[in-house]
Each structure stands twice: as structure tokens, then as C-alpha cells.
């Protein structure tokens, strides 16, 4: 193993993520058969696996510079061949945002699910339009697409909280004993705390690298908390002592 | 253009502000949830009290209705049978004595059947369909009007309180039709769709103008009663075109 490999794959974020994927896989495999087919468990597992795969792929692009350069060239980016923003944009800012919306949707009441469906459709349409029209290229910073995705996730979180205080099923339960409550809270904090950082990313790295790195650390910490949350969601059937069953959970 | 230093402060301030805002939001939501939960529990308790009260009323009314029916049966059936027995016994012919014995046996059967209706145990042993069929048969037997019943047995499974309320509401609807509508025909249809079961009570009587305010509280009470078991009451009628009552009860989850 050369030093390039370790610098690409050996950072603490990637190691934590790989360990989380390993633990998540073990927990998911331990679930009873009928729970494995239940979206309340496979969706968090899918998100966890997806994050691990694209982050490792990101690390691989840093390891295999020629590959990264070729993809950048294919997308028309010959100016900054070292960047792998295209992967970050597609994988995190677009697909992951949709997956989070689907996760929040699974915790909403039937009357609110349709709003999330609309948000996903609008998000996909706007993201495609912005990229095809060249307003936000795939290989450059995409603050507008991120802002729309993050805002939609924040709105979806808001819908969850509205359901929490209006839906009879939620009113019967104790929110602090619901994983959906903690999940939504983590997503709410993640997207609001990293919001400023995400839209000012390049500016901060140009103007004040120290502050940029500090804000990046907030993001990394929040990411670890988010991974823990996903693991808890997968492990929910083993934690019945601490968490209650989701009141709106539909096993179908 | 804002100087870079100020922009940095704005970024730091915005991040802290957003974090604080979100924390306040989540704490406020938990606080509101607690308040609403307390209100919801209070409402549920009130609804339970209301439900029990309605159920007691319904039971009383069914008792009253049953007693009225017993009175009628005592007068029309058993009274007649006993009079016939007396007449037969007064006769010197032996075949008349045999007839008298048959009449007494018949009267004993009738009394036994009546005694069973004195408490509400019959509600458990009788299905709603059977009850409705009995009621319609009784109406038809009086010669008041023709009756018909179509049922897909959607109400075969009911909780006792649901059955009690439905029996009372059906009773009241039939009473209303007999008292006010003077129909030639009363038809009851029992059916279901995806989420709910329906009882439709239709008569071809006088009907009435539903837009006119009624002095009585009969319809309101029926509607309220259906609500206590999670159901709905709806009525459509027009002068000279009869009345259609629809009782809807969702399937229990």
C-alpha cells in the first residue's frame, strides 16, 4: 500500500464511515426476515450503504487521479482536473437529498406524504433544468441546488413536527422515545448547521481557510451523529427498551 | 461590497443563529406536543364519559322499546291465545279441550320468547341482520307496509356497544318512517365498500324538506350516536319522494 492510498482512504471520516457500514450490515443481517423487507429498516440501511459507497468512491477518485481527470474531461472540466465535485454534487447534494426526503416521508401521515412527493418531483426537475441549462454545472459548486434540496428537507422536517403536534397517533406517544423524532431532529440540525458552510464553501476556502475548516469540522461531527442515527434506525427492533414503535409505521 | 472580515462575522453569526433557531424550534415543538397531548387526553376522557353516557341512554331506550313491544305482544298474542283457551275450555267438546291445550303450549312458548327479551342478552346472541330482519317482518306482519332486506352480512362482526347503538338508530329510523312517512315500502340495504360498511334505510313515503329547520332533536341525536361509535349518519329526502338514511361505520382497525 502506497502513501497515496492511505492519504485517500486513511482519513478518520472514511474509517468511521466504513466501520459504520460494517456495523450497519451486521445489524441488518441480524434483523428477522420480515423486518428486512420493511422500509423502516432497509431505507436507513440503503442510505448508510449509499453514503459509504460514494464516499469510498470519492476517496478512490483521489487515489486514482487519472480516472478523476478522465471523468472531469468527459464532463468538460479541464480547468480543475483535481476536483471531484461532480461526484459530491450528484451523490450527496442530489441523490442523498432525495433519499433523506424519502426517509422523512416514511414518518409522515398520509395527508402529508403527497407534499414530499411533490417536493421530490420539483427538486428533480429544478436540478436537471439548472444543470442542463448550464446555470449550475455538474463539476462546479452547486449552491442553488444544495439550497433547494436543504430547504426541502427542512420543510419536510417541519411537516414532521406539524404532524407530531397535530396527528392523534403522535399525540398518544412520547416524542423523546421515538426514533423518528431524533432522526428528524438530527437532519434538521445537520442541514441548518451546514447550510451556511455548504453555500459559502469555496468563498471560505479562498478568504478564510481556518474558519472554513472549523465549519467543516461541524459538518464532520454532524455527519458522525447522522451515521449513529442511521445505525439506531436499523437497530430499532433490538432497542425496544429505549424506543417505542413508530405510531404511523405501516409495515406494508 | 461588504469587507471580507464582516462577511466572516456574518457567516459565524448566521451559523450560530441557525443552530439556536433550530434548538428553540425543536424544544418549542416538544413543549407544544406535551400541551396538546394533555389536551388530547382530556378530550379522550370526555369522549369516553360521553360515550358511556350515550350507551346507557341507548340501553335504556332499547329497554323501553322492548317493554312497549312486550306490552303489545302480551295484548295481541298471549292475550288472544289465553282468551281462545278460555273459550275452548268452556266448551264441552273434547276436541276443543285439545285445542285449548295447544293454545296453552303456544302461550307458554310466547312467554318464554318474551322473557328472553327482558334483558339485553339477546343483543349478543342476535346478529344485526337477524335483528333488522325481525323488525321488518314485524312491520310487514302488521300489514302497515311492504318491507325488504338485502344484506352482504358486512355487519356480522360488531362490538357489543356498536351493535347496541346501531340497533337503536335503526329502531329510531324505522319508527320515524312508520310515524311520519306513511310509506308503502321500506327497504334496508346492507353493503360495504373499501373502508366502511353501510346501512341504507329507504322508504317511499311522504318525505320532507331537509332545508327546513326541525324543532325536534331526533336527527341530531342519531347523528351524535353514530359519531360515538366512529360512524356517520346522513339523510336525504324531498317532499313526496321518500327518505333515504345512510348509516356508515368504518371497519375496525
From TrEMBL, chain A:
Keywords: Kinase, Membrane, Transferase, Transmembrane, Transmembrane helix
Transmembrane parts of this sequence: 12-29, 41-63, 115-132, 144-166, 178-205, 220-239
Signal peptide region: none
MF terms in GO: kinase activity
Protein name: Histidine kinase
Naturally occurring in which organism (per UniProt): Algoriphagus oliviformis
UniProtKB/TrEMBL annotation, chain B:
Catalytic activity from the UniProt record: ATP + protein L-histidine = ADP + protein N-phospho-L-histidine
Cofactor(s) required for function per UniProt: [4Fe-4S] cluster
Record domain Histidine kinase: where: 69-253
Keyword Protein transport belongs to the record: no
Pfam families assigned to the protein according to its UniProt record, in alphabetical order: HATPase_c, HisKA_3
Taxonomic superkingdom: Bacteria
Task of the protein: Member of the two-component regulatory system NreB/NreC involved in the control of dissimilatory nitrate/nitrite reduction in response to oxygen. NreB functions as a direct oxygen sensor histidine kinase which is autophosphorylated, in the absence of oxygen, probably at the conserved histidine residue, and transfers its phosphate group probably to a conserved aspartate residue of NreC. NreB/NreC activates the expression of the nitrate (narGHJI) and nitrite (nir) reductase operons, as well as the putative nitrate transporter gene narT.
Keywords tagged on the record: 4Fe-4S, ATP-binding, Cytoplasm, Iron, Iron-sulfur, Kinase, Membrane, Metal-binding, Nucleotide-binding, Phosphoprotein, Transferase, Transmembrane, Transmembrane helix, Two-component regulatory system
Bilayer-crossing regions: 6-32
Coiled coil: none
Entry GO MF terms: kinase activity
Stored InterPro entries: HATPase_C_sf (IPR036890), HATPase_dom (IPR003594), His_kinase_dom (IPR005467), Sensor_HK_TwoCompSys (IPR050482), Sig_transdc_His_kin-like_C (IPR004358), Sig_transdc_His_kin_sub3_dim/P (IPR011712)
Compartmental location: Cytoplasm
Signal peptide stretch: none
Alphabetized Gene3D superfamilies for the sequence: Histidine kinase-like ATPase, C-terminal domain
Chief subcellular location: cytoplasm
Protein name: Oxygen sensor histidine kinase NreB
